[in-house]
Amino acid sequence: MSILDQSHMICSEQASISSLNSTSVCLQDFRSEPCQVCGENASGWHCGSITCEACKKFFLRSVNGEYLKYKCIRDKKCIITRTTRTQCQCCRYSKCIAIGMKIIEQSSNPKIEEIFKEIPCAVCQSASSGIHFGATTCEGCKGFFRRMTKENTPQNYKCSERSNCEINALTRNMCRACRFRKCLMAGMSIEGSRIGRQSNLFKHKMVEMQRRGLVQSKLCHLLTSNLNHTRKKIPHINQEPLIMVSLEDKLESYIFEQISHIENAYISQLKELPFCSNEINDLWMICTSQLHEYSNRVRAFIDRIPNFNSINFIEKTSIIHLSTHSVILMCLCIQSLRSGIVNSNWNYLNISFNSSHSQYLQDRYPFFFELNRLTYSFEKELQIFELDDKEIALMLALLITSIGNNKSKEIEYLEEELFTILYDYMAVKRGMNNKDYFILTIQIPFLHRINNLILTNISNLKCSLTYQL
To answer: Which InterPro entries match (predicted)?
Structure first.
């Protein structure tokens, strides 16, 4: 089944699509993990382990001497599950202890609020306070978005300039229209408000990332420097063969071989995306044909990567369906940069502007032709990075594995491996102290948010054109 037919059987699915907004792999909430005591869906990180609310409360009741009263009538061999957990308090408590539950004293770990302060607000670039309405923002922009949507007042505000006011910590109160528009561009939505509810498990994951160096103390400064174009571009010198040889020497042979496989898959399938066919008269068939081509190329891309062979067909189809638009969007941005002009006049369907259907689509479905406005900052970042084909290919593979929350162990392992390979390669190529890796991978949630917008607009397009037929 094609990417188009899988998720757009009926128009009512738009609501469910909009609820799929995902945050960064580095920031995602793992609430879907099972309780380590009884197997029920966990509610968070409690007393040193991943547990459900029931087992957390049971342990807190038991730990203060209550456990001394527990007796087992089955030689302490009871199997603890969701349905049997209340039958033997003794074995349930023993399992709590076995998985490492304990009353944790106040530690010296950094607070979650302190970690978020290192990440800039997606709207005004001041220090963020958490994930609000589906985006990482400060308290000010969170409150502004809530007021605008609650009072239903966005339509009352107009920009006195050209709807392109610069929004930062100093100017954010000067133009409400542009500030609200930037909130939407950052991925904020009422449906996304659930993403802001951060469980203890989410906080534990954030602290673990900070401890491992995945949330860098200088990240905010580096991002701000990039946005202000203060980073200097290193001029190219005709020494590429020498650089590539040294890179191969510095990396483990099996890692370089994996990178080469992924690079070759990218070059053969995604480096040059085809233009939309002009030989078909039916408008819906034109769009369908192009979207099917995108889906097929993403599938062919991962089929050529040996690492993906362990994933079963159904799961592979699912991640392709969920991530295709993120992958294609980045490829189109890269193609735009190759043209020599940042944010050149491209459209998502890659349809020629001279096509007979182009003007019709632009007038009625402008979203596909205005995506370049949403990707403007991202393209500027890509221009500064000057990624080679290996880095692009690894990033595309990461976009595929980082989508969704209910992933199998095989995909999670592959995702972690890809993050490591990309880090190792960029560290060897750009230096251990270079932070391009962190700035690049933090763009992943942005691409996934646009992916969801594209899914919704494809659904609208299908409903509209089908109705006209």
So the answer is: NHR-like_dom_sf, Nucl_hrmn_rcpt_lig-bd, Nuclear_hormone_rcpt_NR1, Znf_hrmn_rcpt, Znf_NHR/GATA
Q: What is the CATH number of the domain that holds 49?
A: 3.30.50.10
212 found inside a domain = no
The confidence score (pLDDT) of residue 50 equals 82
Residue 56 sits in the same domain as residue 12? no
- Do residues 408 and 371 share a domain? yes
* pLDDT at res. 341: 63
85 and 158 share one domain: no
Q: Say if residue 88 is in the same domain as residue 119.
A: no
Q: Is 359 found in the same domain as 288?
A: yes
Note whether residue 93 is domain-resident. yes
Q: What is the mean pLDDT of each run of 10 residues along the chain (469 residues)?
A: 38 34 36 76 78 89 88 89 90 91 61 71 87 83 86 76 86 89 82 52 54 46 35 37 52 84 93 78 81 92 87 87 91 86 75 77 82 82 89 93 77 84 86 80 85 85 64
Inter-residue contact 421 to 340 (CB < 8 Å): no
Note whether 454 and 325 are within 8 A (CB). yes
Asked if residues 326 and 298 have their Cβ atoms less than 8 Å apart, the reply is no
Q: Facing residues of 131 across strands?
A: 136
Cβ contact 379:333 at 8 Å: yes
Q: In Å, what is the CA distance from 86 to each residue of 37, 53, 55, 143, 337?
A: 12, 14, 10, 43, 61
pLDDT of residue 446: 84
> Which pTM does this prediction carry?
0.52
Write the burial class of residue 228 (CB in 10 Å: 0-12 exposed, 13-18 middle, 19+ buried): exposed
> In this structure, is residue 73 part of a structural domain?
yes
Same domain, 70 and 123: no
- Is the CB of residue 186 less than 8 Å from the CB of residue 450? no
